[in-house]
């Protein structure tokens, strides 16, 4: 467990370092830095893909929280890298209410377009690093849980959505994560992380 955590930390530090290099390079071409911010909210995730259509999976509620920075190339276009802790997974409507819980560190790079003041649409790539995974079920009033080791350590996907900037630095947005990497390793199963996020942010 310690070696796995160390591996994830090394990957995260590498991504952060590359992110700062990218930010420094991009700043030379940006009009101004829009500021740093914090953002968090609710997740509504499920398994997606052709191999889950016949199963009785349903959306599972989780959360996400993290930080971001905004860099404006023009008054209408901004680039927004961020780092978030995000709880994903799914739930099954079976006799024991079984569920899969996957905890990731998400690193998205969003491209925001502002058609009008405040309102924006956005999309961009995201790489996610698996922090931990477990499976749970309820038996006679007690929750039974065990650690999982069959999920891939990285997940690639796309993020897209809409947002609105509120007064005094606050913002709200709704987005969809479209996982493109099959979740499970050593498996041909067509199963992906897919889900909605509703977020509240604050830009300093």
UniProtKB/TrEMBL annotation:
Keywords: Signal. Residues 16-204 form the Outer membrane protein beta-barrel domain. It comes from the Bacteria. InterPro entries: Beta-barrel_OMP. It holds the Pfam family OMP_b-brl. This is Outer membrane protein beta-barrel domain-containing protein. It comes from Algoriphagus halophilus.
